[in-house]
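Quick question, first post here. What does this chain look like in 3D?
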Amino acid sequence: MVLKLHGNAVSTCSNRVRVVCEELGVPYELIPVEFTKREHKSPGYIAIQPFGQVPYLDDDGFKVFESRAIARYIALKYGGIGTLIPDPRDLQKTALFEQAASTELTNFDFYAGSLALDNIFKPFFAKKMPDPAAIDALKSGLEGRLAGYDVLLGRTKYLAGDDVTLVDLFHLPHGALLEEQGIDFLVSGRWPNVTRWWIDISSRESWKKISSK
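> Answer (accepted):
Ran it through. Tokens below.
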């Protein structure tokens, strides 16, 4: 049975899952959840995803939400072990993968995701304009974190080692939106290892397929 991803093509979290499916060649069907109709807040949706967020995955009746959890499930089930996710028997690779996963969530996504929320999504969906002081604080915070990224990526090609993993792909949706906001941190060359890495991962065919839709 084809995986059913209940989400939206403009949703960064939905696209985090979609790029993993494309990377692994896993067939899936995107079941649109219309934000403008508040379908994600409907009783039927809340019964499955109690926070009213997208996406959730339905795999022949098994349902799971949170994009990173979904991505891990797909990688574990559909041939991602040893490629996008380390073999759990390799304790050192697993530890480095988990280190990188925590880094993405706390040192990148917090800032890049908050910038996208304030600069793009709140103005569009809530008609709420961003606070310039808050935006400056988020940008400053991200700058400091990218300096740390540059150190890490000077040691290895990707964040968890010399092979691309889920963690690298997790950066793509919010990273791509930085440029849309006129924030060139990933491409400016200010942090050369970051720029080299970003050009690499954002050029992958899986992401090109998602971002062109």
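The chain is about 55% helix and 10% strand.
Strands lie at 3-7, 28-32, 56-59, 62-65.
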